[in-house]
Amino acid sequence: MVGKADTRMQLLGEWYSKLQQIATKVNAISRKYDVSFEQFLVIEQIIEEERKSPSELAVFFKTSLPAVSRKLNLLQSKRLVYKIRGEQDDQRLMRVNATPEGIETYESIKAELLTWDAQLKDHDINLMAMVNHTLEHAN
Question: Going residue by residue through the chain (139 aa), what tens digit of pLDDT does each one get?
Fold first, then answer.
């Protein structure tokens, strides 16, 4: 007889497998443009949500400022973002913007993701929505 805990473990395994399939796909799309999906998400926040400071990005991604700084340095080395220092007469303050190449890369990845997303079945979309809802309430 399968118990409730066994059923939950099985569902957790199935969820994890599906999540891995999704992660593999989105990373494959972004890798075509020489960025990880995580880097794409950073650029997305800079462009779409206008999170322009490292501290805003750190809060959004629930990570440390040094981790955000490493991500931004990597994106800057790829010429996808640039840093602006010294706005408002304080050299310690830094803002980031996407370069034209960063915007083009972002738009290209976004277009491919939307094409892929259109191919997903309704039950996959519903699964992702349920996972999001569950994780929001678990945290």
Answer: 567 777 878 877 887 888 898 889 999 999 999 999 999 999 999 999 988 899 999 999 999 999 999 999 999 999 999 998 876 666 667 899 999 999 999 999 999 999 988 777 777 777 777 777 777 777 6
Taking the alpha carbons of 65, 71, 73, 75 in that order, is the dihedral positive or negative?
A: negative
Largest CA distance in the chain: 69
Tokens of 19: 């999540």
Contact 6, 75 (CB under 8 A): no
- Which helix (H) or strand (E) is 24 found in, with range? helix 4-31
How many Cα atoms occupy the beta-carbon half-sphere of 77 within 13 Å?
9
Which of 66, 56, 57, 18 is CA-nearest to residue 38?
A: 57
Q: Which of 121, 116, 114 is nearest to 44 (CA)?
A: 114
Which tokens in the block code for residue 26?
């989105």
Query: Structure pTM?
Result: 0.81
Structure-block tokens of residue 55: 């501290």
